[in-house]
Amino acid sequence: MTTSCFKSRVDTEYKHSTLVDLLSQRAQHQSEQKAYTFLKGTEAQTDELTYKELHLQAQAIAASLQSLKLFGERALLLYQPGLDFVAAFFGCLYAGVIAVPAYPPRQNQNLSRLQAMTADAQAKVVLTSTGLVESLKACSNKGLELAELHLLATDSLSDDLAKAWQQPEINSESLAFIQYTSGSTGNPKGVMVSHGNLMHNLALIHSFFEHRHDSQGLIWLPPYHDMGLIGGVLQPLYGGFPVTLMAPVDFLQKPLRWLQAISHYRATTSGGPNFAYDLCVRKITSEQRASLDLSSWEVAFTGAEPVRAETLEQFAATFEPCGFRREAFYPCYGMAETTLIVSGGVKNALPVVKWVESTALERNEVVKASDNQEDVRVFVGCGQSYPDQKIVIVNPESLTLCSEEQVGEIWVSGESVAQGYWNRSEETEQSFHAYLADTGEGPFLRTGDLGFLQDGELFVTGRIKDVIIIRGQNHYPQDIELTVERSHPTLRPSCGATFSVDFKGSERLVIVQEVERSYLRKLDVQEVVGNIRQAVVAQHGLEVFATVLVKTGSIPKTSSGKIRRHACRSAFLSGSLDVVKDWSERVF
């Protein structure tokens, strides 16, 4: 898409300074248009909201919050996936209250993350549903400090309260919500996202995906996470087209439900992290595929974790008979600190794939390799930026620009870059106010991600804090994890972590890997560990210091499915992993 085309589309769509203005206009001019549909599990029943109904519910919730004089305060949103969450989120915006979306606590769940979020945000009220009130009170008895907070069940409020609503004094610079980062490399931090950030990023997504008023969204991603909330809930509102939502657990338990919903609702936009496409390939049978029609699917976005060319190829080959077009794949890159999207490709174009020599990459050099050459890394491009936003690749030590043949840290500037971290001025200064040492250009956001730019195309290679450095060579954990999961059929795909630990002054490699539940009773540990060690030596030239096989579902992950390698490393060192069997060169 050309620069002039992008600007004209932004001029057409980007009319409002806040989401409150946007929804109010939709409610006025498209009052009876269906905005949101929520699929209720395995039942045929659905919940629905028109723009007018959402507007009224938001006003009623806002009026209740305004009666508590909470303007500018934080509200913790604890809901099961569904339309109650959507109404509550807009209710906060309509009251000038800063929303803090979070996963509702589950039975026997460690509450430390939610406790940390609650304390860090200094929340004054909890918005929830009637069905969760008692369980939240029970959590208060287990150390989750909710007792001092006002608990408001928004699904029990009458729409008549909307009459008392008063338009809040907010503008594009006002904070809309705090998005707590997924914490793949550390403790979650609250990213402050303004209305202006949201409106700019929604304009980017709308242009990247080339959405129209007759587009149709289908989203299973959690609404508490940036991709599910901004891409799944807010983008359809921005574009004025309907979206069908479903609970993440319904997809995870039976991936077929996702593709069945795309078929049924004739969805044009849907997607998720790499593992979602891999799960469909592995779990959906040929008999089940026979009933699918994926010909309506125009944008199959993929992001939030490394995009694997092999996964894209397998999914395309598997579901082409169902009408899926490989040109629909849309790799993209983004993060909470940039509101959501940073870069994206060209709609209806095949993803850009590049083969790079692995040994050169260990030296942060980008050397082109052929697709049949051994010892290569395959990268899928995550598209390009738009004219009013800038991506640069920077040497993280010298803070100078890298060439196209060098790997460096990805820095971003533009109106989508968020306001900083809540109550963390020092970290905000370090991450959000970076300047190039050689030119003084800035400020930029330091993303903490590594990558390279070639011909404007962004390729993401990993996270700075995740890179394993052994004997002076860089090794990307996701590459080793892929080698490990392929080494034996008992190992669960996308459920392993690799990291290094210091032993007698040198860094040594540790592998933690989940085992498929069906193999737990007949696990040949010696064979599995032997296969892992042999594969890692053969593919990466590394000796494995320790291997820990853990129970299904026990690897720490973020809300978007990323492996929390630092949390896994801490659990390894403290001995708190849910171990099935382990092996090491020596006992610690």
Model description:
The protein is an alpha/beta fold and 588 residues long. It is built from 18 helices and 26 strands. The strands form 8 sheets. The chain has a 4-stranded mixed sheet with strand order 2-1-10-9, sandwiched between helices. Strand 3, helix 4 and strand 4 form a beta-alpha-beta unit. The chain is globular. It starts with a helix and ends with a strand.
Low-confidence stretches: 1-14
Number of strands: 26
User: What average pLDDT do the residues reach?
Assistant: 90
Radius of gyration: 24 Å
Main sheet summary: 4 strands, mixed
Structure class? alpha/beta
Number of helices: 18
> What percent of the residues sit in helical stretches (DSSP H or I)?
25-40%
List the strand order in the largest sheet.
Answer: 2-1-10-9
Principal-axis shape equals globular
Query: In percent terms, what proportion of residues is strand?
Result: 15-25%
Task: Furnish the topology, listing elements before pairings.
Elements: H1 3-13, H2 19-29, E1 34-39, E2 46-50, H3 51-67, E3 74-78, H4 83-95, E4 98-102, H5 112-121, E5 125-128, H6 130-140, E6 150-153, E7 175-180, E8 190-194, H7 195-209, E9 217-219, H8 226-239, E10 243-246, H9 248-253, H10 256-265, E11 269-272, H11 274-283, H12 286-289, E12 299-302, H13 309-319, E13 329-334, E14 341-344, E15 353-357, H14 358-361, E16 376-380, E17 390-394, E18 408-413, H15 425-432, E19 445-454, E20 457-463, E21 468-470, E22 473-475, H16 477-485, E23 491-503, E24 506-515, H17 525-540, E25 544-550, H18 565-574, E26 579-584
Parallel strand pairs: 1-10, 3-4, 3-5, 5-6, 9-10, 11-12, 12-13, 24-25
Antiparallel strand pairs: 1-2, 7-8, 13-14, 15-16, 17-18, 18-19, 19-20, 21-22, 23-24, 25-26
Helix pairs in contact: 2-3, 3-4, 7-8, 11-13, 16-17
